[in-house]
User: Fold this.
Amino acid sequence: MRRQIVAGNWKMNCDLSETEALINDLKAQTIPETTSVMIAPTYTNLQSAVKMLADQPITVAAQNMHQASNGAYTGEISAGMLKSIGVDHVILGHSERRAYFKETDALLAEKVSTALENKMTVIFCFGEELVDRTHGREFDVVKDQLKKGLFHLSESDWGSIILAYEPVWAIGTGETATPDQAQEMHAFIRKTLSEKYSDAMAQSVSILYGGSVKPGNAAEIFGKEDVDGGLIGGASLDAESFMGIVNAFA
Ligand code: PEP
Assistant:
């Protein structure tokens, strides 16, 4: 059975004291055993988060990492550095990294390989832009991103991959894909995986939806057959709204 997952991407929000306060708010909540919960604070607060959550069923993930294992890459963070502080999950390919930091599919393929070589689990983000959807090419774009970013992996590598389909037009905009639009794309993603690998493999991969998920719309989206949870931005910055989403699974 696939894992139900809700992951909070805190982006460049929360300094150390705000991070600790938000984690304490989350620690006061009961996490349902059936759902894996993750949070991705910014780099400088990862170590504190790991320590604070050591005895809690909440996983700490990084928001990015470099593709090289070490070297002259000023300002960058490696997989080994993350592992050394107890972080073994990483978000790669977020649309903000693709748009503002010009991360290409080829670069992301390298980052994914480096993460897996370091025995990390990757939350791989991808999704079409509004212009793609208005031109009716959203399925082609999504397939291409999967192909270029992940199809170099072997079937067994996929045990360490969580997919996050995030239509760019729905991120931070208040605009959400309808539950039917999300289901349609998730089913397409699963079919694409099945054609490249196997049906068993396609059925085993968790596919999260991301894009303006809130406590009020999460249940309907998560209720769809091929949606296994969500990657949450804005609504993950408040413990009550994040937990409203975590508790939205039927
Ligand atoms: C995101 O940044 O991954 C995201 C889904 O953001 P939001 O929930 O704010 O749309």
